[in-house]
Amino acid sequence: MGRRWVWVLLALLLTAGTAACSAARGNRVPASSPTSVMPSVAASTVSAHTAARSGKAAVPLPNYQPSKVVSKAAGSVQLSSTGSVSKVASFYKNALKSRGWRIVYASKSAANTTIVAMHGATGVGISIGRADPVGTTIVVTRCQC
Questions:
Q1: 139 - beta bridge partners?
Q2: CB–CB of 6/116 below 8 Å?
Q3: pLDDT in tens, 71-116
Q4: N or C, where is the chain less crowded by C-beta within 10 Å?
Q5: Per CATH, the architecture of 4-144 is what?
C-alpha cells in the first residue's frame, strides 16, 4: 500500500471543497463535475459499508452538530453548519484522535481546512470550507485503501 491513496483522496476533497464553495456563492456546478456525481452517506452507513468490505468493524465518526445533511450516498456525507471552519476542524481532529485515527495530512487556510486520516486500511478525508454569507460546508469521505 503506497501513498497514492492520499493523493487520490486529497484530489477528491479539494475538488469537492472548491465546488461546495462555488455553489455556496451561487455559482452553478456543471453536471460533468466530479462533485456532482461524488457519493455522500451518513457516518453510520459509511462505517457499516467499510466494515463489510474489510471484514472488521470500522470506527464510526459523528457528524458535527449542529449541522444538517445536504447530500449522502455510499462512502460520503456533505453537511451544512453554522459553526466556523476552525471550530468544525477542531471537532473532527479531536473526534479522529479520540477514536484511534492517525492524521496523515492536514492543511489550513483562512477559509478551508482539509484533514486526511487512516484507521487500519480505512481512510477518511474531511474537507471543511466557509460558505458565504455565513456557515460552513463539510464533506466527509471514506475509502477502503
A1: 78, 127
A2: yes
A3: 999 899 999 999 999 999 999 999 999 999 999 999 999 899 999 9
A4: N
A5: 2-Layer Sandwich (3.30)
